[in-house]
Amino acid sequence: MLISGCKGDFLDIPLEGQTEAPEFFQTQDDALKAVSAIYTFLRSWDNSAFPYQYLFGVPADDVEKGSNPGDASFINAYNNFTFTESDDGVNGYWNGQWQAIGRTNQVITNVPNINMDATLKNRLVAESKMLRAYFYFNLVRIYGGVPIFDGLQENYNIPRNTVEEVYAFIAKDLTEAADVLPQTYSAADLGRVTKGGALGLLSKVYLYQKNWQKAYDVSNQVIALGYSLDPDFNHLFRVAGEFGTESVFEVNCDCKPGFGGSQYAEVQGVRNLFGWGFFVPTTSLESAFEAGDIRKELTILRQGETTLEGDLIQKGDPLAGDMWNQKIYVPKSVNNNTCGYGSVQNIRILRFAEILLINAEAANELGNSAVAETQLNKVRKRANLGNTTATTQPTLRTAIWKERRVELAMEGDRFVDLVRTGQAATALASLGFQAGKNELFPIPLLAINQSNGVLTQNPGY
Length: 461
Description:
With about 450 residues, the chain is mainly α. The protein has helices at about 20-25, 30-40, 45-50, 50-55, 75-80, 90-110, 120-145, 165-180, 195-210, 210-225, 235, 285-290, 295-300, 350-365, 370-380, 395-405, 415-420, 425, 445-450; strands at about 65, 245-250, 280, 300, 325, 345-350. The radius of gyration is 21 Å and the shape is globular.
């Protein structure tokens, strides 16, 4: 289902405002190709490799640059908060998300006018709305308020909307999508977004807004859909565990001839053995796990160990460190050499474990400690840990935040979690984080210049 839109020979969906787009959107096959072009972006370089890690990974305290000290040394700017509005990574992630939103708007605007199967038409538009919401969620967490483009329009040079307006727009898209999307698909369509995915993402949006009642209610809707924790934490992240009972929103990165796969795993794989060796775990993350937590050794891949799948992790480079992200590890026995290393590794955007923790956090903030403890303990039990000893609202809040750190380690949530919970200034002070500035990244200078000053800069840049 995933069609590579960046290889040149496949029709790349025209940019918004160009006359070619209406000429393309004529048939049901056109509609399917256009939606596939959106899904392709999910596993693209901008959305899953370097630019993504610059902003969601390295600035936190659980991930650092990795590889050799001199290799891609420009990434250090994200580890010590010295990046600027002219930085390529800041600009690249911004451009990539808008490109993806442009593709969703092409579908949302043009597909309703195609003479095709009505049920499929409605579903494709709903898929596009959920994906548009996801891209906007990325933007608002990283850059703050951004312009809202609801479909195609004449003028794209408009001011930024407020954070609250962007979140309302996201919630509207997700609510409308959830009303249409199915909960499951056939094997041929695995990776398409679902009702559970839309509701799950909506519960996370409400979490960021501190709308505790809605976060609680919507996460309960997701829980009622029948998801469950994978009892084996290692299996959860292996190829055999893809689209399992815990999968709420997952990117299909199946490697097929001519499609190129994804570089999500390759850029993080053990240097000179499985990949490039970037974006590795920190000693701070290593120390965050409780004694007996099985997730520690199933999250951190170490020099000299032999994996459960039988691969010996040898030191490939004396300057490249000795710890790597085990969640993205693809055993040699299942790697598809048609593409680069690890191209078959799916990207888990939202797992049921996080839904339980969202439910727990919202319940705790609403004063329902019993539910908060129950949901938190479900996640801890899978990790081979005993029940939480926290009982009061403040201690449960801290326990849930800590559980998010170790459960979701290296999955792109730590930095934005620290910001939304007000912990960033303390946790990241030693890295150079400045309160009142580094909660957001700068709007790219190039974008501001191209807007003739219509776009305004974030504070401190």
